[in-house]
Amino acid sequence: MINIVLFGPPGSGKGTQAENLISKFNLKQISTGDLFRFNMKNDTPLGILAKSYIDKGELVPDKVTTDMLIDELKKPCDCDGYIFDGYPRTSFQTECLDKIVKEELKSEISICLSLIVEDRILVERLINRGKSSGRKDDSEVSIITNRISEYYKKTAEVAELYKEQGKYVEINGVGEIAEISQKLFAEVEKIK
Ligand code: AMP
After folding, report:
1. SS3 state of residue 171
2. Contacts 24+ apart (CB under 8 A), 150-154
3. CA of 77 to the centre of ligand 1 (A)
4. pLDDT tens string 95-142
5. Would you list the domain boundaries of the chain?
6. Which atom from ligand 1 is nearest to the alpha carbon of 58?
7. Does 60 carry a binding-site annotation?
8. How far apart are the CA of 8 and the centre of ligand 1, in A?
9. What residue spans carry the region label NMP (predicted)?
10. How far is ligand 1, taken at its centre, from the CA of residue 86, in Å?
């Protein structure tokens, strides 16, 4: 089983690259952001709660997010592993994920692939995405910069934890999509 944590600030191309990794290695993507958006669209109690944080560019509380992730992992899946996109974002979540993967999948996190993109390009990409998707958290520069700074404040520690485990690999996230995918594939092949 290959379990990948796909890591990177908002707008770094995690979603696009996850799609390519999924088809290459028969993985299932679990994106906590997508799960929240699904719940918000359907006005579920979880969605209403999450919206109050997401619209401000803040992180949803760890417990709420982690319970949602566990529910998702309990669903049967005919796949060879998972891509975690958007989770973990804190050191608490990193420890939770280790435990959850062990308990639910009898497996472990194989690698953390981190896409590196400079802030100026992230803001540009997110504003463009907001124009076509209508996502509120992608439409205002102040909300975007808040999300990016939340990422650096809270999630830098996640990278440290994976570095300590020798599982952290940085990939340049600027360039042709296919070229970036090839670099990611090569890293996964190394640990297969
Ligand atoms: P994303 O699509 O991954 O950028 O997530 C969109 C928003 O959902 C984030 O800005 C957070 O408000 C919330 N979110 C997604 N994943 C998490 C997480 N692991 N922990 C807390 N909040 C999250």
Report:
1. strand
2. 150/57, 150/58, 150/59, 151/9, 151/10, 151/89, 152/9, 154/59, 154/89, 154/90
3. 23
4. 999 999 999 999 999 999 999 999 999 999 999 988 888 887 888 899
5. 2-191
6. 12
7. yes
8. 12
9. 31-60
10. 6
